Amino acid sequence: MDIWYSIIDMLPFEWTGHTFMKNALLAIILISPVFGILGTMVVNNRMAFFSDALGHGAFTGVAIGSIMGLVQPLWSAVIFSIVFSIGIAIIKHRSRMASDTVIGVFSSTAVALGIFIQTSGGKSFGKAMTYLIGDILSILPSEILLAFLLLISITVLWVVIFNKLMVVSVNPSLAGSRGIHTFWNELIFSMVIAVVVTVSMSWIGLMVINSFLVLPAAAARNIAKNQRQYHLLTVIISVVSGISGLIASYYIETASGATIVLIAAVIFFATFVYRKRFD
Predict the structure, then answer these.
(1) Rounded-to-integer distance, Cα 267 and Cα 273, Å
(2) pLDDT of 86-112, one tens digit each?
(3) How far from each other are the two terminal CA atoms of the chain, in whole angstroms?
(4) d(C-alpha 181, C-alpha 27), whole Å
(5) Residues 224-266: tens digit of each pLDDT
């Protein structure tokens, strides 16, 4: 961390004098590419609603961890989110219900259960606000290490399963004919999203985290001419949104997660207009 602090101290900006901003900037640089990488497949597979539901599941996991007396309910949230994603995947594949119906049932049940647990016995809902709004400025060096490990793990996993996921997203029948297990690949991807959303929720905020996952990929899709451009532009837009949103939130004193998402939204609408203009 000392090397990172020394590099940032060379920049001629006011915010570089604050350790919390240095930590937050490094965290954003590490976590933004993760959201960019996963966001491409979320958009390709039309899973925006699904990733939002996982956030609701994570919230319930936090509530369960709280009533169990855990000081850090993150790991109970991770476990619950994984179980939650498995449940959605199994019922979606074994029932005749539409995917959005299954996801809607799980999502609404999870958020209601989370609120019920958080407020049972007349308890205050205040502690849950950290997870709903997020606070990247309070991130600790140990959590930055977690973000780094998350980036490495997602990158390695992406190299291993990307081609299979791409075939599954384009044509599930073709994937099956080539011996690709559609269900298992989708399940692995769902579990990965669950872990990323859950680990990041206290930094970005559950209310906007799904938007940060979807908007950079949607913006890149507006202007990308091929898959390589699509993925590269998504990561770039995600990182640019993250860094500029963090710095902007410092100066205008707003929630960092919401500011990041708003900048990503501006980029999306700009690319949408650009595409329409030159179509």
Answers:
(1) 10
(2) 888 788 777 767 677 877 887 788 878
(3) 47
(4) 35
(5) 888 888 989 999 999 999 999 999 999 998 888 889 999 999 9
Distance, CA of 210 to CA of 201 (rounded, Å): 10
Stretches where the chain sits below pLDDT 50 are: none
Burial of 54 (0-12, 13-18, 19+ CB in 10 A): buried
Q: What is the pLDDT of residue 29?
A: 93
Q: Give residue 140's pLDDT.
A: 85
Give the distance, in angstroms, between the CA of residue 255 and the centroid of all CA atoms in the same chain.
17
Which has the closest alpha carbon to 138: 130, 149, 146?
130
Instruction: Give the global pTM.
Output: 0.83
Residue 239 corresponds to which amino acid? V
For residue 261, give the amino acid letter: V
Question: What HEC string does the chain produce?
Answer: CHHHHHHHHCCCCHHHHCHHHHHHHHHHHHHHHHHHHHHHHHHHCCCHHHHHHHHHHHHHHHHHHHHCCCCCCHHHHHHHHHHHHHHHHHHHHHCCCCHHHHHHHHHHHHHHHHHHHHHHHHCCCHHHHHHHHCCHHHCCHHHHHHHHHHHHHHHHHHHHHHHHHHHHHHCHHHHHHCCCCHHHHHHHHHHHHHHHHHHHHHHHCCCCHHHHHHHHHHHHHHHCCCHHHHHHHHHHHHHHHHHHHHHHHHHHCCCHHHHHHHHHHHHHHHHHHHHHHHC
Burial class (CB in 10 A: 0-12, 13-18, 19+), 183: middle
- Encode 191-226: b = buried (16+ Cβ within 10 Å), e = exposed: bbbbbbbbbbbbbbbbbbbbbbbbbbbbbbbbbbee
Measured between alpha carbons, how far is 261 from 209 in angstroms, rounded to an integer? Answer: 8
Who's near 161: CB < 8 A, 6+ residues apart?
Answer: 185, 188, 189
